[in-house]
Amino acid sequence: MRITLDNKQQLPVIFLMGPTASGKTDLAISLLDHLPVELINVDSAQIYQQMDIGTAKPDPETLEKAPHRLLSFCDPADAYSAADFVRDAKKEIADIHNMGRIPLLVGGSMLYFKMLLEGLSDLPSADADIRKSIQEQADREGWASIHQQLQLVDPITAGKLHPNHSQRIQRALEVYKITGTPLSELHSQSEGGIEDCYEVRQYALVMQNRALLHQRIEQRFMAMMQAGFAEEVEQLYRRGDLHSDLPSIRAAGYRQLWDYFEGYCSLDEAVEKAIIATRQLAKRQQTWLRNWSNSQEIQVDNQQGYLQIKDLYEIFLKKQ
Questions:
Q1: Together in a domain, 30 and 166
Q2: Cβ–Cβ under 8 Å, residues 90 and 197
Q3: pTM higher than the cut 0.70
């Protein structure tokens, strides 16, 4: 049975969130046969062109049947912020509603979801010189020292970040150095989220068995390697205009294989580090979801194995 909605004013926005390797994309694609939805990508790595294997993008044949908006439109050398995503996602949501269909946003970039839902303040653009200065200091003293520096000027933001969250620490300190105002204060002044404009139905894919998720992450990463992930990173490396500080190259898996091509480690070491980094990413995503209000949880495993996609979309449709 296919569900249809005629009144555009009543059309909701659907969030489908979950950790990496939890089956979000497969579930979203399966829902196309049951709901009048259009898919919007919410993965901060899948926005980039030439980064297909390591980001687990759907293959071209699948994308022809199930197009994803905000996918593969940004060059890896370009910066793309949460503010950019909020702007672009709002346009896509409005366009989909004007078609009389439902926007289904799927991915694991939880900051993107949060900023789209709640809004964000008018944050300054990145400053390359300030960012470089912070990175150089971190290289000399370590990110724990930079975290302590952030604690002095913005204890609220610092309290939410682990000293290993280098990218977010760097951005928070950069914003303070540019504006003289703590990032936490700017966020408290945020406006422009969609939660007051639409009925937002939020669903979170959750795991009971962490070991099972870790096993799936490893299996998927090794499948990526067999599919040519190392060759994909090598092509990016040989472009000559990319470097390890870019958000695109910082993505889990890419940064570790980049280190291999830089000569910092062996390929086996890079693979091991990449799997660990992906597990850490999944852990951070699950932490976000545990603290996420107003979401309905959907279990994707039964302790022994993953549920079939058929079972998942039946559970999803029952929650509608």
A1: no
A2: no
A3: yes
